[in-house]
Give the backbone structure.
Amino acid sequence: MKLAHESILILDFGSQYVQLIARRVREQRVYSEIVPHTISAAEVRKRAPMGLIFSGGPASVYAKNAPTCDPELLKLGIPVLGICYGMQLAASLLGSKVQPSPAREYGRTTLHVLNHQNLFSDLPEDLVVWNSHGDQVEQLSEDFLPLARTGTCPFAAVKHRGSDFYGVQFHPEVSHTPRGKEILANFVITICRCKGDWRMATFIDENVTEIRRKVGQSHVICGLSGGVDSSVVAMLLHRAIGKHLHCIFVDNGLLRLNEVESVEQTFGDHFKVDLITAHSADLFLGRLAGVTDPEQKRKIIGHTFIEVFRENAKSIPQAKFLAQGTLYPDVIESKSPTGAPSATIKTHHNVGGLPAELGFDLVEPLRELFKDEVRKIGEELGLPEEMVWRQPFPGPGLAVRIVGEITRERLEVLRQADAVVTEEIKRANLYRTTGQSFAVLLPIKSVGVMGDERSAESVIAVRSVDTSDFMTADWSRLPYDVLARISNRIINEVKGVNRVVYDISSKPPSTIEWE
Ligand code: XMP
């Protein structure tokens, strides 16, 4: 869907930071989109962006097969900002030489600003910036005006005199460039003259209209999981088409404490969404009996989910569409020119995925959004805070947090222990800063003393990680007193557990889940 907004297009030359650039632009309330570097000038003209940003990239401009772009882009009269590789490429297209730098620049450097008029307006003389390049622009014709330099790089930032091209060797988009946000704001707001009026409320209104147009008088099915994405999709559709939305929520028996009730209360009782809960715990747990191999568990759960969903969808024969919570990072990943994986939860994991042969047309209203934007929309739509800020929960649920065999008794133990972890993490105000925090039930018995008796009972591992993308993660440095409360409460309150351990492994090489 094309939105009628002012926008900035970001040409992707393979930088690991390309999504970050897009997010930084959106923080200025300007809609941004990542496009392949091969986009033609004609296509850009059609989209009429307010500005272009050329991302960085791992290649060298002078290398064979280095990615390039349509040189006409620099003649459209649209302001262009080149970052690192993007600057070198544009400078070379505009007639300058790029060479390996005598001094490679990695990490923090001090930037000395020479010209405060445009990119660096309202910024101090000296700034800390983050570099990561081995090439730099060696010679610049008189056509370029140096805007800033570093100790080793005389052209750390430049402007082309004959056009609205700006280039920076450093990365303004990363947090290690503390004033980078202002540099980007100077480009987006001052140079590109964006108004910065992209608001979530506008997004909701436009999407509601678009959904109504697309769906018409048909009906839509939405698979609800209780997670943020599907909840927001359901609320958007509900606002757009009301009773023409039908949600299917599969209770696979592997959900957390009170999760089924909470979804039913929020969507069914409170928002009056047409909600079908498929109570399928017996079916799932029956098929999982005796299974201990994690991949086998995932397969059984995945297949059973599709079967149950399909069965329930039959009760809504009038439905033509299926709503899905696809987010922008998934879309970019499938379009990435470098084929490099983008920072998302592994898709092969996605047990909640439904096969195309279900035969529905797709409605994907979140395709243009990042996760933090989805949360804002959820808040705007009135979803409870608890749902909007929920940490990710894997499709196979508690099955991959019970190491070994899944039984109802073991599920109950884990559910109780997990609820204690969540409660204490929330009480300590750490729920939003930790990426995921949960309990895992181990397949061993540990010896303890209860009263005068020695006993052998279960061990719970507590896992809490700090992560921004779930591809890498570090264990959270939880305060000792929080750990102490978690441990005391689990041992005192959860029958059958006499030992709690804390997982201090980072990813890689460990994974976040134990299975
Ligand atoms: P790992 O354990 O691979 O997890 O470090 C990375 C992220 O993926 C989630 N995860 C899953 N999500 N189905 C899912 O939908 C799965 O089978 C699955 N396995 C792991 C995990 O919770 C973390 O957020």
About this structure: The pocket of xanthosine-5'-monophosphate is lined by residues 298, 345-346, 349-351, 392, 394-396, 400, 436, 470, 507, 511-513 (CB under 6 Å). The radius of gyration is 26 Å. Confidence is low (pLDDT under 50) at residues 337-352. The longest strand covers residues 97-113.
